[in-house]
Specification:
Order of helices and strands: HHHHHHH
Strand content: under 5%
Shape: globular
Number of strands: 0
Number of helices: 7
């Protein structure tokens, strides 16, 4: 795992400034903006895994007649299916595809399922946390006394630490499901318990470390963004999103290297079929 490189990855594209700006714009669009951004990041992950999406590809349908070698002139693709890693020994350093509004609808359709999966996993905690906060504040108010100021300080420090731990827990539990939903382009198959258990068994330690790293660095970047007249929070959040998904790419790549189960893409057959192999993804 290359934790620091997850932040440097964004600069591997010469149009990184425009891509960061598009990420900021998407984050400002209510409701659908974050979903579009998630869809774009999964196209980036696919690219790094060695599968370059054609401009004619649709998020829900990849017909075989649309997948031709002429569409992929770069040797980096070389007609490999998604579940095969690139021959490049260091794929993390290669440039990623630009964000383009011509693919806005494709990004939107691609991002819906992973967005819903992560929402479902985090929703119970999101509903419970305000209740715990209110009960704690009521308890402090009832106790009163001269030490109430100290009690309030301890309470808020505890809430801050618990929120970080809860965020890490949600990240660990949702990442296998989130990755599977985004790569398979399917909602139902995202909740595959065999894949979930196998993913945690093979790369669980690295996943926890990645979430700890992301929690620490994102908190620091967000604080710096707020200190920069608050305007800096927007590029900070964009960089965090890039780093987050690059770490998830690294985790999935490591999972496959350790003999993990490749994610099957719904409605898309392996390109090995074109070479006479009837095996499907």
């Amino acid at each position: 795992m290359r934790y620091l490189q997850s932040y440097g990855f964004v600069f591997s594209n010469r149009n990184w400034g425009a891509n960061v700006m598009f990420a900021i714009l998407c984050s400002l669009i209510p409701a659908i903006g974050p979903i579009v951004l998630i869809g774009y990041f999964f196209e980036v992950i696919e690219f790094l895994l060695g599968s370059r999406p054609s401009e004619r590809d649709k998020a829900s349908d990849y017909p075989l007649d649309a997948i031709r070698a002429a569409d992929y002139p770069s040797d980096a693709f070389s007609a490999r299916p998604l579940n095969v890693l690139p021959a490049d020994p260091d794929p993390e350093t290669q440039a990623y595809p630009d964000f383009t509004f011509d693919r806005f609808s494709e990004y939107l359709m691609r991002g819906v399922w992973p967005f819903l999966v992560r929402l479902i996993v985090s929703l119970p905690v999101a509903l419970l946390f305000p209740l715990v906060f209110m009960m704690g504040m009521i308890g402090i108010g009832v106790s009163g006394g001269t030490d109430s100021g100290v009690g309030v300080a301890i309470f808020f420090i505890g809430i801050f630490l618990v929120s970080i731990l809860v965020g890490i827990l949600i990240g660990v539990l949702s990442t296998p499901l989130y990755l599977r939903a985004g790569l398979s382009r399917d909602f139902g198959s995202a909740f595959s318990m065999p894949f979930f258990r196998d993913f945690l068994r093979r790369v669980g330690k690295e996943l926890v470390l990645a979430e700890l790293f992301l929690a620490g660095t994102s908190s620091a970047l967000s604080l710096l963004g707020v200190m920069a007249c608050y305007v800096g929070i927007f590029p900070a959040l964009a960089l965090i999103m890039f780093a987050h998904h690059h770490l998830e790419f690294q985790l999935y790549k490591l999972y496959l290297e350790r003999g993990g189960i490749p994610v099957e893409v719904k409605g898309r057959r392996s390109l090995n079929v074109m070479r006479g192999d009837d095996e499907e993804w």
